[in-house]
Amino acid sequence: MGNKWRKAKLALGLNLCVYVPRTLDDSAAPSSERLSDAALLSPKNWDSRPMTPTPSSHGLRLIRSGSKSSKQTCSICLTKMKQGDGHAIFTAECSHSFHFHCISSNVKHGNQLCPVCRAKWKEIPFLAPTLDPLPGRASVGWPQTDALMTMVHRLPPLPRRDLNRRHLLSLLQAPEPSVFDDDESLDLQPASSEGSSGNKNVAGHNPAKTVEIKTYPEVSAASCSNSYDNFTVLVHIKAASTVARLNPRGNQAILPQPSQTPRAPVDLVTVLDISGSMAGTKLALLKRAMGFVIQNLGSNDRLSVIAFSSTARRLFPLRRMSDTGRQHALQAVNSLVANGGTNIAEGLRKGAKVMEDRREKNPVASIILLSDGQDTYTVSGNGGNQSQPNYQLLLPFSIHGGDNAESQIPVHAFGFGADHDASSMHSISEISGGTFSFIETEAVIQDAFAQCIGGLLSVVVQELQVGVECMHPSVHLGSLKAGSYPSHVMADARSGFIDVGDLYADEERDFLVSVNVPAESSRNPTSLLKVRCAYRDPLTKEMATLESEEIKLERPEISGEAIVSIEVDRQRNRFQAAEAMSLARTTAERGDLAGAASILENCRTLLSETVSAKVHDRLCIALDAELKEMQERMASKHVYEASGRAYILSGLSSHSWQRATARGDSTDGSSLVQSYQTPSMTEMLARSQATLLGSPSTQRLVQPSWSFGSQPKPR
């Protein structure tokens, strides 16, 4: 027996190194003592007991001191493996373990790569055809050259008694229908559990208290003898609160299960890139993140998964995430392998078709898109100018909805790594009404997904429209500053409206309304505006309306020094910073990085002279830090193309929709990464981080820099 040692580094970012002999044999050791990567990633398998490395010819066994064996999970079917349960266990030379029947089904289709780490195996398990074959089992009718053809061959031969898993297998192997009207019936549970879309008697639910309106004129008084152009009024909208329950012994949140809060159920389609560049750690982390999403959807929520590379395939139809639905979804997601090119348009087309063809609809619908590459099949130049790709070709009409906002399905796009096409991903999200997130560090993909679904699972307002109407006959609207939200001022300039759409619980929206203020002959207050909101309650499906009190401006004969509203000033700063970001990005795309950095620096100088900066307003400080970060990411063409462009676009997406996005890898405590986070998002993030290993690298992107109990309001 030789005395050569080799260094074995555990996959998926685990910073634990041990040395094991090359030639020692562990074939006699019980397989239950081996830990797969899937088991190692489970927090329940980590404690303070030391680990003792033992040699293995097939890989690595880790045995905790003080325990006879460790729990183990098959990385294909995600069920536990243990001795004596009637199933043989295979451990490959790369150390990953599987049920023998799971992995033999995998390799009998010609695949000799580990489904977890993509290592090429020398020793291949083989299952003889006499061992419980599944009658009628045939390969899926995809072209053998297709990059996706192997993804449905990852499910094991099933006992005849296991009808649920057999049903999933038949779904994956069946040819795709021409119409995706095979969505599972909603069969909604009572609203007291996870929420209902049809029960109007929701306990403790009052739609009249779902939205709150506040208004702030830029100054409270102005001389009656003067007239004013571009007088600003801030309209502040806030959705109903959901209170996080805090641990009385500290600031840690007690995370309720989704079933404990009535909410609107969701139809979610995830469109996932499994092209060749996703192989290895990226795909493993994506599977883990999707596992988190699946486990946190409720039984009234429905999920469908589209996987795309050179072409696209629907893994399963919209299915309720009951216990059985979750099991099927986990098995299907874990069956994915990476290969082929990147056809984002085809993935989105399939995702949109799932939404278009469904027979029934949950109140909330959304698409999550993740890609680490550039679409090489669809995007073309616009009018022959190859520098201006027509990204709208990537979006089916049903997603962007044209002029029909009600039919619009938002796509929340996630650009993964340094090689994705940030411009196309941002355009997709912007056109559809979704957000764009930049995942710079692979390890934070689960947290990014968690933040997104934390919002989607807390929608309390839909189809919100904010209207403003002038009260005084001489007052007229100038402009409505609403970011990316569609807004319109009527021809007579006496009224206007903003289409906001959905609001998550505790979300806030701020809009700046510009009006003219006439001179007055008397000192009576001038009535400026009235604000009205109309929206649909997603739980009861009822329309509700409310209106603010009239906004009045005091008109003394001689006014003293005007005191500018801090609320108005900070929102002016936010709009000004967003405009500077947009202009800097346009300048950078022309190749003038120095000019782009100068635009950001000038904006920082202007912000430093505002009322908010002088009182050390936290939003103003955060905006300055964000602008500085963007300047640094324009240091060179290489830096800008690797991360600067995506960082700026994710910031623009966040500010224009006033909604949280994941962006970059910033550890700056004053970063605006957390500025639009809601308590529901923060709770889901905490739940995500509780399932991870807890290393700083997995928490840098979205970990709040303050405690739950002391989180300041930056707005």
From TrEMBL:
Q: Does the keyword Zinc apply?
A: yes
Q: Which residues form the RING-type domain?
A: 74-118
Specify where the region named Disordered lies, as residue ranges. 43-64, 179-206
Example GO molecular function term?
A: zinc ion binding
Metal-binding keyword on record: yes
Q: What is the lineage of its organism?
A: Eukaryota, Viridiplantae, Streptophyta, Embryophyta, Tracheophyta
Protein's name in the database = Zinc finger family protein
Compositional bias, Polar residues, is annotated for 190-200
Domain VWFA spans what residues? 267-453
What residue stretch is flagged as signal peptide?
A: none
Supply the Pfam families for this chain: VWA (PF00092), Vwaint (PF14624), zf-RING_11 (PF17123)
- Source organism per entry reads Salix dunnii
Task: Give the keywords, sorted.
Answer: Metal-binding, Zinc, Zinc-finger
